[in-house]
Predict the structure.
Amino acid sequence: MYAFTKAIVSYLAIYICFTKYQEMKHFDVDLHLHSRFSIGTSPKMDLPRMCETAHLKGVQVLGTGDCLQDVWLEELESSLEKRGDCYELEGIAYVIQTEVETTVKGRVHHLILFPSFSSAHELREVVLNNGYSRLTGGRPQLKISPEELISLVCEVDALVGPSHAFTPWTSMYAAYDSIRECYGENRDLVTFLELGLSADTKMASKLAELDSCTFVSFSDAHSAAPDKLGREFTRFCLRRPSFREIRRAFQGVNGRGVVLNVGLDPREGKYHLTGCRRCKKAYDLEDITADGNVLKTCPECGGPLKIGVKDRIRFLALKSCEVPLAQRPPYIHAVPLLEILKAMKRSNPMNVKKIYGELTREFDNEINILIDAPLGDVRQRHPELAEVLERFRKDAIDFEFVGRGGWYGKIKI
Ligand SMILES: [Zn+2]
Ligand SMILES: [Zn+2]
């Protein structure tokens, strides 16, 4: 009996030590990237540069991008080190990740996260053996429906959700009026949704059908420049920076979860308002609707019109008869520090780089300056910047131009 009690006590002691050792921590995570094998991506988008920028920004976990592309996959496998269930390189954790486009029933982009390289290989084989795609590009087009994609992805134990769900091109809400319509029978297997650059939590929360989805904000970076990579990120509470922990966060297991979303003010996004690609004029949806149909061309110049994310969400929310109930983590609007410095010192780009380097060294990283450091500390070092950051943190930024028709918005400093 004594031996039994002793065994129980030592087991408990080990358990307590272990759980204490494995304390929850916050991780800033950017899981939507592209490699140099995706169309329109910088040829300099490689692993050393990705790691370097992640350290500058203060992002601790990155998506690999394009993991179904064979050359890039080989490079990832030979570079990333496996530690327990985490992949790592130069102090940055990685999650095996890709974006794909489904082309049956509309062109829709989806973000896929894999537990391991073998899981990515399994999906590659299924796709190649069935002739769904040749998988040569970074972001492959698959000749299947979103519903079929979910089945394939779940088969290899990976996670999937819509990328930049609201943009008027190649997104779920560009092609469908509801998430159920998009993913059909498999809708309940979709646990996260990427907001994209033109939407934020406040906008997307208007749709009750998304109540069970975790909102994530990632950069969709096509270059490793510090104003692209990590320009949007999600702060997770996790034990370790691994796929398994991120999946538990989506399930809300034992205190894991998303605690903060950070991204551009949606007014900066290229498709916030409805507007004309050619003359940049913005329109109210009512003014370009005749007999229930929205005009395709600009009444002013004849250029192509694109319905903005703001109007799209308003339209979908009006159609829904349910009221959203989900409580969401806060969303902070932030602009890359380089962009802020450029707007403050327009004439001298060399000076901007120098100040950026000094600031990130002094404050450890960019996210600390933008989000976490006390404003008093920034004010001591750079009073002018502190003033701008204060307005950001209070969400009191004005815009010279609000994004529309494929044109980025421009903040007023
Ligand atoms: Zn995309
Ligand atoms: Zn026009």
Q: What stands out?
A: The longest strand covers residues 92-102. The chain has 15 helices and 20 strands.
